[in-house]
Amino acid sequence: MDLTSIIGIFFGIFCILLGQMMEGGNMGQLMQVTAAFIVFGGTAGAVILSFPMEDLLQSLKETKLVFLTGPVNYEAVIEKVMNYAQKARKEGVISLESDAKKEDDPLLKMGLEAVSDGADPTLVRDMLETFLSRMETQKNGAAKVWESFGGYAPTIGIIGAVLGLIQVMQNLSDPSKLGSGIAVAFVATVYGVGSANLIAIPMSSKIKLKAKQDFVAKEIMIEGIIAIQAGESPTLIERKLNAYLLDKKANAEK
Amino acid sequence: MDLTSIIGIFFGIFCILLGQMMEGGNMGQLMQVTAAFIVFGGTAGAVILSFPMEDLLQSLKETKLVFLTGPVNYEAVIEKVMNYAQKARKEGVISLESDAKKEDDPLLKMGLEAVSDGADPTLVRDMLETFLSRMETQKNGAAKVWESFGGYAPTIGIIGAVLGLIQVMQNLSDPSKLGSGIAVAFVATVYGVGSANLIAIPMSSKIKLKAKQDFVAKEIMIEGIIAIQAGESPTLIERKLNAYLLDKKANAEK
Amino acid sequence: MDLTSIIGIFFGIFCILLGQMMEGGNMGQLMQVTAAFIVFGGTAGAVILSFPMEDLLQSLKETKLVFLTGPVNYEAVIEKVMNYAQKARKEGVISLESDAKKEDDPLLKMGLEAVSDGADPTLVRDMLETFLSRMETQKNGAAKVWESFGGYAPTIGIIGAVLGLIQVMQNLSDPSKLGSGIAVAFVATVYGVGSANLIAIPMSSKIKLKAKQDFVAKEIMIEGIIAIQAGESPTLIERKLNAYLLDKKANAEK
Amino acid sequence: MDLTSIIGIFFGIFCILLGQMMEGGNMGQLMQVTAAFIVFGGTAGAVILSFPMEDLLQSLKETKLVFLTGPVNYEAVIEKVMNYAQKARKEGVISLESDAKKEDDPLLKMGLEAVSDGADPTLVRDMLETFLSRMETQKNGAAKVWESFGGYAPTIGIIGAVLGLIQVMQNLSDPSKLGSGIAVAFVATVYGVGSANLIAIPMSSKIKLKAKQDFVAKEIMIEGIIAIQAGESPTLIERKLNAYLLDKKANAEK
Amino acid sequence: MDLTSIIGIFFGIFCILLGQMMEGGNMGQLMQVTAAFIVFGGTAGAVILSFPMEDLLQSLKETKLVFLTGPVNYEAVIEKVMNYAQKARKEGVISLESDAKKEDDPLLKMGLEAVSDGADPTLVRDMLETFLSRMETQKNGAAKVWESFGGYAPTIGIIGAVLGLIQVMQNLSDPSKLGSGIAVAFVATVYGVGSANLIAIPMSSKIKLKAKQDFVAKEIMIEGIIAIQAGESPTLIERKLNAYLLDKKANAEK
Fold it and tell me: Mean of the per-residue pLDDT values for chain B?
């Protein structure tokens, strides 16, 4: 579970609604079905047109992960790789074949399979890097879906506002309608700017940053697998992988 | 046929028009020939000046493809390359000459020709990469045509709005004209922002993303052709190319 | 002559003026000497301060070329290089000395000279690439002059508008002056946004894209010269250079 | 202590408050609890959602350092490295083991340890560069937290303004409330634009630039350690490292 | 002396002031101490907080150079390098030691010293490139100071405008104060947008472009020094360096 994701999304919206109350407003003023149709419907259309189905589905999957997965534990990744390294040292790389079957991580699985098969070292590195670069493209695609939502929403909010103002202008002779009409038009602006800045852009940022942490973990795996295949000593492999750790505890352990 | 393209373009516009109705407006308010002339004519002029003829024509072609072509099937690409690989293994690379003639894909055709001719491996790679990079330039050119439409339209919408306001200001003494005059001016804003955000920018994004999928497919072909020429075993080639596949089914098959 | 440049620049401005007429306005409303002084004078000052003299002059030169030169004919470039290749094959590279003197293109001239002199292959490639990269810098400089015009004009248009509004505010008590005063102020906005989006930014884009086509032609020349120097067979050179051609006719010929 | 950080943050805010006074305004007008809730609460929510906990904490740490640490003294870094170089020359690299234990800088410590252990030169360079690139990611993460604050605050300020205007519009019939109501709405704009431009964006810029100076210092260390391991003469190492110094004094000393 | 810098900065401001006069305004309307305090004081604070002292001082130095130094004369640079090349050819590289002492350019000085000392060629290239990259960082830092001024000023101009409007709103019941109050508020906008677009952004652009010309000159020096050290013939060196020249005269001379 990702604490900052859960706190962040509620805290921002809560503060803004609280502010609205403190000003003497009420929730009802911010609930406008028409504005919602224009802003969220229009933005949804723009986003759907912008991306292939694959990216749209991936973005839903990553959105769930933003809330459900915690930070990557690099120490645990290194430990796992070290276990394989020690086993390979003692029992030979062929013994990793059974581990490959049980391994959950697709990159590590692919690497262990290739190493236990005795594949060519250059091929192994190429394959793992191709796979990682494809994963990177996929995750960035998901982040871009939210980013483009954050780009379209405020401008489509402007369309909503202008459409509202057009109606207002038809009733200029009736000053009592003027105020509430403009208020309706403004809600579209709030929907557009709010959904972009409180949800879409932060979500895109979080997906990207979580993906970056993941990539570091994957790089550790690739470095580890290649070192295992090269038959390097576990001590050496550990030293190499520990360079990925920044905090003092880890350095002290080394 | 690309489902997200077709749904996306209609859904966004539909929601906004629906919103307009729900607010008590009508379609007629949004139909302004003058505003259309200014915004779409001005934007068209800017786009035509911005690009060479070649890019403009390519962008029309790609726009059609955005709706007509579905997602790239990487498995099918790999299968096709594997067929060539197996044939080359059994009957020698010279046997690929007849396949080159029947092949539709220009990159694969060029590669098969060169391999069956016994061209130098470095030359083959250089040629294929030159061709791919030229294709990339061409597709990106097409995407940029729509991107620049999306950049010009909102600002030219502002010109339309300001021109409208100038007329409004001439009639300030006549309050009844004021409202409807401003309404006319606002329609130019809606045209500019709407055409940019509901059509042009999403179209540019979709063209770019479809091109990216294409490029991955082309990379698979290049990797495959080079491996075929190097005389690698079909099993090895398949393993190499499967690293481009991300979903579990494909990995399981491997 | 570049058709899209000539059509583009007139079509956009024509549509906007037509729209102005259709709204019941007239040309006179858009002719404001004061606004022109502020917007075009201010923008000119900003552009002149931004660039060295060399870039400013180059940008005038490129602006002329935007209208006068048509698209690059890659086939013709390849044909020219192939003529040199065949001559070198038959009569030796020394025979290219006389061609170097007649050659118009500075890059090709430099390359032919160096090859006929028997210069070191690495030196030839380095020299040609240095020269190409310097040309690239120069052309991009010219494109950036128009790009920065397109960046300054709208904001200096805002200065014009605000200066106009300051005068308007002085006469608030006189409502008859209000409307026409604001109209004057708006013209500065139209000048700023219009000159940027109908002329400056498209011009910058066209210069850049024409330069890109030029660079591909120059790359073909460099590839060709280096292959000639390496003594490669004309058939091989032609195959290499044809990889730069994308359209089917060219591929069919190969 | 960083003088420009301390002067900069107070000077900007002071000038703006002074201006407010000079216009006949007072501090009270700029103190609006409601606006603060909306702008700072909303922005805080967006920032918290955008980043992993790790980046948020790092950004607090770096913010402190912006004020507390002075400019990096490259001469001192070179001197320190030179001391190790001379010791290694005289007593052998093994003698650096005790220095590694006392060394504060984590990169230098890791390098000295590896060198005194007789680790492979390629491994040492890889480890140090991995560690540096990880540090870079971490520092940039901290800078991005402030940068995204600076991006969210002005737009959430617009939400605050629009929410305020909605209340104003409800009271249009009462002109006396109109003015002060709009004033309240404007304070949200000032909070958003002000906190972004006087604090958040400058802070992000300072963190990034201080990190860059740090990286140059780290590069000097890496170059030094690798030269020490390669057994280069102290004179040579000093010449190499002095190339990092730009000012005349340093060059004269050389 | 740089002609475009001097003309550019005066011409832009002159045209805008002239426009202000032509509209019937006067200089006094644009002189507002309060607005100046807010906009320039606030912007100064933001800029000071954003940069280390070193960059701020460097930017003052470069600003002076924007007006005082003319364009780089590449021919003269090549000639100077050629003189050293010829001397080295005749009297040996050791003879360059005395020239190194007299040489003003720090990069050329460092290179000549190293060459006359018989330093390792790889070391010489590394040192010169390290020094050049450090110079690049320093000059870009100076350009970024003005760039960030140009970024902050318009938004802090908005703060000034909004603070002004707050005062205006307090006096809504008194229409005579309304107009002049708004006028005061607008001056802050003019200060912000004007100082950014007429001075700061152009200055940043000019510093960057002058630095780029400088870098080309430095690259010529580095190429030359390395060729001198490699003992290449003066004719060859001249041909190599002439590839940096684009204009016909230079090419004809070659």
Answer: 90
DSSP state at residue B27? G
Does the beta-carbon distance from E37 to D23 stay under 8 Å? no
Q: Which position has the token pair 């074949």?
A: A97
SS3 of E187, please? helix
Please give the pLDDT value at position C250. 43
Contacts of C153 (CB under 8 A, 6+ apart): C39, C43, C191, C192, C193, C195, C196, C200
8 Å CB contact of C189 and B158 = yes
The chains found to touch A (3+ Cβ pairs under 8 angstroms) are: B, D
Rounded to the nearest 5 degrees, what angle is found at the Cα of A52, between the Cα atoms of A129 and B128?
50
pLDDT tens for E129-154 read: 999 999 999 999 999 999 999 999 99
CB contact under 8 A, C202 and B47: yes
Angle (deg, nearest 10), helices A175-194 and A121-170: 180
Using one digit for the tens of pLDDT, what is the confidence trace for D36-59? Answer: 999 999 999 999 999 999 999 999
Q: Which amino acid is at B83?
A: N
**CA-based nearest residue to B108, from B134, B73, B81, B76:** B81
pLDDT digits (tens, 9 = 90+) for B148-171: 999 999 999 999 999 988 888 777
Q: Where are the beta strands (DSSP E) in chain D?
A: none
- Give every CB contact of residue B13 below 8 A, 6+ residues apart in sequence: A42, A45, B194, B198
- pLDDT above 90 (res D241): yes
Contacts with E175 from chain C: Cβ below 8 Å: 172-173
Question: What pLDDT is stored for residue E139 in this prediction?
Answer: 93
Nearest chain A residue to B239, by CA: A127
Task: Say if residue D174 is exposed, middle or buried (CB neighbours under 10 Å; 0-12, 13-18, 19+).
Answer: exposed
Contact E166 D183 (CB under 8 A): yes
CB B7 to CB A184 under 8 A?
Answer: no
Q: Do chains D and A touch (3 or more CB pairs under 8 A)?
A: yes
CA distance A111 to A77: 14
> What is the reported pLDDT for E246?
80
Q: How confident is the model at residue C246 (pLDDT cuts 50, 70, 90)?
A: confident
Instruction: Give pairs for A235-242: CB < 8 Å, separation 24+.
Output: A236/D123, A237/A81, A237/A82, A237/A85, A238/A78, A238/A82, A238/A85, A239/D114, A239/D119, A239/D123, A239/D127, A240/D123, A240/D126, A240/D127, A241/A78, A241/A81, A241/A82, A242/A78
Residues of A in contact with B236 (CB under 8 A): 123
| Sign of the C-alpha dihedral computed for residues C145, C151, C154 and C155 taken in this order | negative
* Count of other CB atoms within 10 angstroms of residue C5: 26
Residue A24 tokens read as 């003497």
pTM: 0.92
- Among the partner-chain residues C131, C155, C165, the one whose CB lies closest to the CB of E197 is C155
ipTM rounded to 2 decimals: 0.90
Is the predicted pLDDT of residue B236 greater than 50, yes or no? Answer: yes
Distance CA B163, CA B153 (A): 15
Largest CA distance in chain B: 90
> Which residues of chain E, if any, have pLDDT below 50?
248-254
The sign one gets for the Cα dihedral B101, B105, B110, B112 is: negative
- Is E222 in contact with E129 (CB distance < 8 Å)? yes
DSSP 3-state of B247: coil
**What would the 3-class secondary structure string for C129-198 be?**
HHHHHHHHHHHHHHHHHHHHHHHHHHHHHHHHHHHHHHHHHHCCCCHHHHHHHHHHHHHHHHHHHHHHHH
State residue D181's pLDDT score. Answer: 66
pLDDT single digits (tens) C126-156: 999 999 999 999 999 999 999 999 999 999 9
The alpha carbon of residue B131 and the mean position of all alpha carbons in its chain are separated, in whole angstroms, by: 18
